[in-house]
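This entry is listed as follows:

___
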Amino acid sequence: MQTVIDKTIGITRHLTLNRPKQRNAISLQMVDELLQKLSEAEEDQQVRALVLRGAEHNFCAGGDIVDMLNAQQGASDGENNAFFHLNRRFGELMQRFNRTPLVVIAVLEGAVMGGGFGLACSADITIADHSCRFALPETRLGIPPAQIAPFVVARVGLSQARRLALSGVKVKAQQALEIGLIHQLLDDTEALEGALQEHLTAINACAPGALAITKQILMDAARVSDENALGQLLDGAAKQFSRAIQGHEGREGARAFLEKRSPEWQH
């Protein structure tokens, strides 16, 4: 593992993008390492939250130009799908982080560009400081933000996504807060760390199984487009609720409430 630093503290797996000389641009190697570390975190029964951040005060400046050049060489050598596979692999990364049952917190500083912008949009909770600059610069480079676009639309809505993607304009942290791209804006690094700990403390008070089920219901709800689909979603959610309240976490939560104590999952 060379491009991702990982550390587990209590209920939290911390993943740090570690290519500071490239402002933590995402390479194919980094994609592979992130996916591996995500799988390991999901298999760890103690882990409920995953913190994603960048080394040396930049989150991520986008995709790695070296991989682009390698794909160009592959295409020149007759590998017709070189760019397709490169682009789609990054989309797989965002899908996995978007759908993981873990609570994903993105801690943002400095550059949040292109693929880094998309990755931030796949997080459940996104906090940033005033050093952040956000942009989707792809169209200025003659390409579309192909894998990023759906996650940006889901985060900020179609109108803002169109403005950002079709102009490539840079957005400051205060503007990002106003359009819902980030959830919390902090003054400095110390305040950022304090806010992160507050979120982790809150997550620690939540039952791990209930967190995973709730996230699944929320993600499914975002795709509901008609009344029939809504009814099916609510039927499924009722079944999940029934299983949960009769399961170990539901019984423990009720006992802890009545006995005026912390539940067993709160460390």
User: Anything to note?
Assistant: The longest strand covers residues 4-9. The two ends are 30 Å apart (CA to CA). Residues 130 and 150 are 26 Å apart (CA to CA).
